[in-house]
């Protein structure tokens, strides 16, 4: 009987507030509209309430409407260019190489994924996009000129969990439901939940945090050290049993989150040794 390939160790990240201090739309796109972020998000919320719509779909539709009214180009390339201006928390730019190298030393294949309510086209334009095996995020449909004209995918706090199962079953294409809905025993799934770590910061991440933690993996609630009330919100996720750890969004060398993730890699390596014995 052929030996089964060892499952990878998977790190899954939210984006806004987790890897980046702010909402990605606020770095470049919203300022071009001539409104404040508060005004933009309030208008999106009002639209969602008025039409009883999903807030993600509402903000995406508002982006298209406002851009068309203000003459702001919104091609796929424009979104990628907006992504180039996104800022990251300390250490993010070198985080992936460091963690991958540590995993390699321990004989562990480390993979990274994004599950975000932000925009995949912007994330794809960032300097760190190359590190992700897959970016699950809200996205647009584009016409023959590559101009955004309609939301294609909306990722909200409950639909986020779908993508955990896609990773779990290695059914990665968003449109393909043939594998994701097929019954597969847990011990035959390519990426067991015990090999997953979900890293997020807010309420939209709670279902993913809880699911990964309850199924044997780990969830890390990160917080912005300079943001008022952020630590208390992260600690509450621990108290409510939704997260394993609450740590600062500091990804620098020898930071708490690096030590925690390396310890989790060590555990997977030890489990692999015990399994062989």
Structural class based on helices, strands and sheet pairing = alpha/beta
Radius of gyration: 19 Å
Tally of strands: 7
Distance between the termini: 18 Å
Describe the structure.
The structure is a single chain. This protein is α/β, with parallel strands linked by helices and 277 residues long. 40% of the residues lie in helices and 16% in strands. It has ten helices and seven strands. The chain has helices at 29-33, 37-51, 55-70, 76-83, 92-105, 120-123, 160-169, 206-214, 230-239, 256-276; strands spanning 9-13, 110-119, 134-142, 148-153, 196-200, 218-223, 245-248. Strands 4-3-2-1-5-6-7 form a seven-stranded mixed sheet, with helices on both faces. α2 crosses α3 and α5 (92-105) runs parallel beside α10 (256-276). The protein is globular. 37% of the residues are buried. The model has no long low-confidence stretch (mean pLDDT 93).
Summarize the structure.
The protein contains 10 helices and 7 strands. It has 277 residues and is of the alpha/beta class.
Observed structural traits:
seven-stranded mixed beta sheet, 10 helices
Question: Helices and strands in order, then pairings?
Answer:
Blueprint: E1 9-13, H1 29-33, H2 37-51, H3 55-70, H4 76-83, H5 92-105, E2 110-119, H6 120-123, E3 134-142, E4 148-153, H7 160-169, E5 196-200, H8 206-214, E6 218-223, H9 230-239, E7 245-248, H10 256-276
Parallel strand pairs: 1-2, 1-5, 2-3, 5-6, 6-7
Antiparallel strand pairs: 3-4
Helix pairs in contact: 2-3, 5-10
């Amino acid at each position: 009987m052929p030996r089964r390939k060892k499952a990878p160790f998977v790190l899954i990240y939210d984006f806004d507030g987790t890897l980046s201090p702010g909402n990605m739309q606020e770095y470049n796109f919203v300022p071009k509209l001539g409104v404040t972020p508060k005004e933009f998000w309030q208008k999106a919320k009002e639209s969602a309430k008025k039409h009883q719509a999903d807030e993600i779909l509402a903000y995406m539709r508002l982006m298209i409407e406002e851009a068309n009214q203000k003459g702001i180009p919104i091609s796929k390339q424009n979104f990628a260019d907006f992504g180039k201006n996104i800022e990251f928390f300390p250490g993010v730019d070198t985080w992936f190489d460091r963690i991958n190298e540590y995993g390699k030393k321990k004989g562990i294949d480390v993979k990274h994924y994004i599950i975000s309510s932000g925009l995949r086209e912007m994330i794809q334009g960032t300097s760190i996009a190359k590190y992700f095996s897959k970016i699950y995020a809200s996205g647009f449909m584009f016409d023959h000129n590559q101009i955004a004209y309609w939301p294609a995918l909306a990722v909200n706090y409950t639909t986020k969990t779908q993508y955990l199962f896609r990773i779990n079953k290695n059914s990665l294409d968003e449109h393909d439901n043939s594998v994701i809905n097929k019954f597969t025993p847990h011990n035959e799934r390519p990426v067991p939940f015990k090999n997953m770590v979900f890293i997020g910061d807010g309420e939209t991440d709670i279902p993913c945090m809880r699911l990964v933690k309850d199924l044997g993996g780990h969830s890390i609630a990160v917080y912005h050290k300079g943001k008022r009330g952020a630590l208390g919100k992260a600690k509450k996720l621990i108290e409510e049993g939704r997260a394993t750890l609450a740590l600062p969004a500091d990804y620098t060398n020898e930071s708490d989150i690096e030590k925690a993730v390396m310890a989790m890699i060590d555990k997977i390596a030890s489990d692999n040794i015990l399994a062989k014995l």
